[in-house]
Design goal:
The chain has helices at residues 43-49, 144-149, and strands spanning 7-16, 22-26, 32-35, 57-62, 76-80, 95-100, 103-112, 116-120, 130-141. The chain has two domains: 7-68 and 126-152, Chitinase A, domain 3 (Roll); 73-120, Thrombin, subunit H (Beta Barrel). The protein is mainly beta. Strands 1, 2, 3, 4 and 9 form a five-stranded antiparallel beta sheet that branches. Strands 5-8-7-6 form a four-stranded antiparallel beta sheet, with no helix packed on it. The chain is elongated and about 60 Å long.
C-alpha cells in the first residue's frame, strides 16, 4: 500500500547537517508516525514520502525553502528588559510569545546583557539544508477519528 493522503505512516530517520553531524533520529523500533497529507511534516519531507511503500529506504537533501524556511533577520533582535515585565530572571534558552506583524510567534532568548534581551523567532533549523536517511516502517489507512482530529493516534487509539 503506497503512501497517499490519509495514510498513517511510521518511518525511521536520521537527520544530519551539512557537516554530517546527527541532529535527530528515530529508529525502526520507535519510528515517527504521522498522518500523510495534513502538513504535519516539513513540506519537502512529506512530498518525498508520498507514493513510497513499506521497506523503502532513501535519502533526501532539503534546502531551507523545503524545510524550516530561510532565516528571517526581522524575527531576531534586541528588546528592552521591560518587555519581560513580571519575569524574575530572563535567561538564555527561555521561550516567550511575542507579537509580530501577522500575529504571535514563539521566540527564544539567545543573549541577555544589562540593557537588552536578544530574542530569535526563527526555527532553530531555519536557513539550514537538512539531510535525511529514511526507512518506511509501516503504512495503514487512517481511522475516521484520526482524519477528523488531523493526526495519527497511537496504539489503542491513544493521543
Amino acid at each position: 500500500m503506497p503512501i497517499t493522503k490519509n495514510s498513517v505512516v511510521a518511518f525511521a530517520y536520521t537527520l544530519t547537517d551539512d557537516d554530517g553531524e546527527v541532529i535527530d533520529s528515530a529508529d525502526t523500533q520507535n519510528p515517527l508516525a504521522y498522518l500523510h497529507g495534513h502538513s504535519q511534516l516539513i513540506p519537502g519531507m512529506e512530498k518525498a514520502l508520498g507514493g513510497r511503500d513499506v521497506g523503502d529506504q532513501f535519502s533526501i537533501d532539503l534546502p531551507p525553502e523545503e524545510a524550516y524556511g530561510v532565516y528571517d533577520e526581522n524575527l531576531a533582535g534586541a528588546v528592552p528588559h521591560s518587555a519581560f515585565e513580571g519575569v524574575d530572571k530572563v535567561e538564555v534558552g527561555m521561550q516567550f510569545q511575542m507579537e509580530f506583524p501577522g500575529g504571535l510567534k514563539v521566540v527564544t532568548v539567545t543573549d541577555v546583557d544589562p540593557q537588552h534581551v536578544t530574542v530569535d523567532g526563527n526555527h532553530p533549523l531555519a536557513g539550514e539544508t537538512l539531510h535525511f536517511d529514511i526507512e518506511v516502517v509501516s503504512i495503514r489507512p487512517a481511522t475516521k477519528d484520526e482524519i477528523e482530529h488531523r493526526h495519527a493516534h497511537g496504539p489503542g487509539g491513544a493521543h
